[in-house]
Amino acid sequence: MRKIIAVLAVLAALSVVAACAKPADRVDRGDNPPQQNVTPVPIAPPTPVRPGPKRFAVGEHARLTLSDGSTADIVVSAIKVQGRSIVATVTYQCTAGVVSYNGLDWSARAADGTELDQAFDMGVKNQLSTGELAAGQKVTGTIPFTGSSATGVTVTFSPTVSPLAYWVNP
């Protein structure tokens, strides 16, 4: 009986030692897959935060780079009341690549922050349509918005989801 207890004590001690051993101390019996050298993957630096839209005064030209890499000089030359609408006059001049233009790329806010809807106003002439400009080509058009006061109106150019520039009327 003493021999059995002694053998059990030795087996228990060996089990404790085996369980507490470090992985490198354990004997590989061939039933474990081989260890692979793991090379740490460097973490990419954070993507730089894209600056917000650039602010311009009415009449000030903006040289903008669009998402496809093309560039254009764009200016809002006037924001004024015309009939029942607030009308922004915009000019695009393509300087490199091909620049698309569209009146729906523009939005406006009143001085108090109220968003102004684009207006369907037959009395406003030369409304900006849609099209493309090659380098050196230029187009000017008007965009009517609902509203009765042009003071403090901000007109924003957003050819993609994010606005690129805005013009503030004094």
| SSE pattern | HEEEEEEEEEEE
CATH class of the domain at 54-168 reads Mainly Beta
Largest sheet: 5 strands, mixed
Would you tell me the structural class of the helices and strands? mainly beta
CATH topology of the domain at 54-168: Immunoglobulin-like
Please tally the β strands and state the result. 11
Could you give the distance between the termini?
A: 104 Å
Provide structural commentary.
The chain is mainly β and 170 residues long. Helices cover 11% and strands 39% of the residues. It is elongated and about 105 Å long. It has a domain at 54-168: Immunoglobulin-like, CATH 2.60.40.
For the structure shown, list the relevant keywords.
single chain; mainly beta; Immunoglobulin-like; five-stranded mixed beta sheet; four-stranded antiparallel beta sheet; 11 strands
What topology emerges from the helices and strands here?
Layout: H1 2-20, E1 54-57, E2 61-65, E3 71-82, E4 85-96, E5 98-102, E6 106-109, E7 115-116, E8 130-134, E9 138-146, E10 154-157, E11 165-168
In short:
The protein is mainly β. The protein is built from one helix and eleven strands, in the order αβββββββββββ.
